[in-house]
Amino acid sequence: MIVAMQNVGVAAGVATGAEGSAEANAASETAALAARNVLYLHGLFESGTLLQQLEEMRPGLPGDRTSQNMTAIRRRFHDKEIAALISAALPPSLGLRALPDMRFIEYPLGGYIAPHVDGPSFDEASASLSTHTFLLYLCDTKEGGATHILSEMHGDTLASLQPVTGSILLFPHATAHWGDVVGDEPKVLLRGDLVKETRHES
After folding, report:
1. Residue 108 belongs to a domain with what CATH number?
2. Partner of 75 for a Cys bridge, out of 17, 60, 61, 177, CB 3.0 to 4.6 A?
């Protein structure tokens, strides 16, 4: 499985000193994420039709602030067309399909989400439970707001991934993670579930 990481280090054979240390740390993060089937993919959703469509629909959805483990606004919706666009953009080799029940999550300045794992959703089309979470980032955050992947609940941090507009983070539901306090500007993302498609032999 290919793991796409941001800033994965400088070219082999060139790095020395601090650069060599950064390269080693990036390689360690990549290996740790690969072992847990965590992917951070870039370039699949460039600024265009889907991102623009999401930005246009988001403000009109009702907001929910009732979650006990986060300081954020959630805006839920059901859209098969958007789910299909997300599914089509993912590498076919992953065999993952997005479910139509999704939600925007908007973190204000100081907003965060505590360490947790995600629960599955039921997919009516396949009569099965979802297996993975996706986070499609709708804006950059440069100060705070990183998603931290943990070895276990309240365990060591395996990787800290900074949101980049149009980049998507995929991970199994059982992956422990948390969202750092947002520092410079609001953090907005689209959160949804993915189901593993079953291939039938012909």
Report:
1. 2.60.120.620
2. 61
SS3 of the chain: the string is CCCCCCCCCCCCCCCCCHHHHHHHHHHHHHHHHHHCCCEEECCCCCCCHHHHHHHHHHHHCCCECCCCCECCEEEEEECHHHHHHHHHHCCHHHCEEEEEEEEEEEECCCCCEEEECCCCCEECCCCEECCEEEEEECCCCCCECCEEEECCCCCCEEEEECCCCCCEEEEECCCCEEECCECCCCEEEEEEEEEECCCCCC
Q: Given the structure tokens 């990036």, which residue do they identify? A: 26
User: Quick check: is 9 in a domain?
Assistant: no
Which residues, 6+ apart, have CB-to-CB distance to 170 below 8 Å?
38, 39, 40, 41, 90, 94, 96, 132, 133, 134, 194
55 inside domain = yes
pTM of model > 0.85: yes
- Could you list the pLDDT tens digit for every one of the 202 residues in the chain? 334 444 333 233 334 566 667 677 777 788 889 899 999 999 998 767 899 999 999 999 999 999 889 999 999 999 999 999 999 999 999 999 999 999 999 999 999 999 999 999 999 989 999 999 999 999 999 899 999 999 999 899 999 999 999 999 999 999 999 999 999 899 999 999 999 987 644 4
Q: How far apart are CA 58 and CA 17, in angstroms?
A: 46
